[in-house]
Structure formats: C-alpha cells, structure tokens
Amino acid sequence: MIHDENGISVVEYALIASIVTVAMTFAVSAAGYNITDILPG
To answer: Which of 15, 26, 31, 40 has the lowest CB atom count within 10 Å?
Structure first.
C-alpha cells in the first residue's frame, strides 16, 4: 500500500471522497436541485 506521512492509504482517501460525493449528491437532491442545473454543460 502507498502511505502518506500520516499512514492514510490511497484507498482510504478514495473511500472518503466517494462518501463525500454521495452525501453531497443526496444533499443537493434533497434541497430540490438537479445536478445538471448546477454543473455547466
């Protein structure tokens, strides 16, 4: 495993990032917005 100075692996960073992404998506949906309204394109 690749570790940084604090011993947190890349896999753990990816897991945290995915959880944050899901939580943000849920929060935006609960607020009544559509993701396509926020993101350009």
So the answer is: 40
Q: How far apart are the C-alpha atoms of 36 and 27, rounded to whole Å? A: 14
How many Å separate Cα 12 from the centre of its chain?
A: 12
Nearest residue to 13 (alpha-carbon basis) of 3, 23, 28: 3
Look at residue 3 and give its three-state secondary structure: strand
Give per-residue pLDDT as tens, 9-34: 888 999 999 999 999 888 888 877 77
All structural domains of the chain with their residue ranges: 1-41
Amino acid letter, 3: H
